[in-house]
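Person: Show me a sequence?

Helper:
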Amino acid sequence: MTQSEFIAFYPQFAGFTPIIVMSEYIRQANDRFSALGEMDAEEARRLYTAHKLTLYARMALPDGAEPSKTAIAAAGQAQQRIASKKVGEVSVTYASGASSSSGSVNTDLADLTETPFGVQLLGLMRLYGKSVYVP
């Protein structure tokens, strides 16, 4: 997959910067998914790239922001999903992903649920069983 093929399919990423990040995720995507059929592999590469670019964009500083330790730390904070909440006597419980130290086989796939592209990729991978590995 080339950058122009990716942008033709997902035009919302046309102005993505820095371009080196997009190039790197496309390179990574092209190195993966050989266990899938040809058409599914192409879809998986597009979804993987879109997923990784979306995660990167969430962590990037806004345009024009001064890079400071505080701003960089705030940009790197993962968005937390609320698992449960209570109104009376206020209580909030946040969902947490798999811990990288848990030794879980699915640890490498834990971030796929963080974007719609990742969820679609996870569904595609499940069609092929456990033969597909995506770090």
User: Anything to note?
Assistant: The two ends are 19 Å apart (CA to CA).
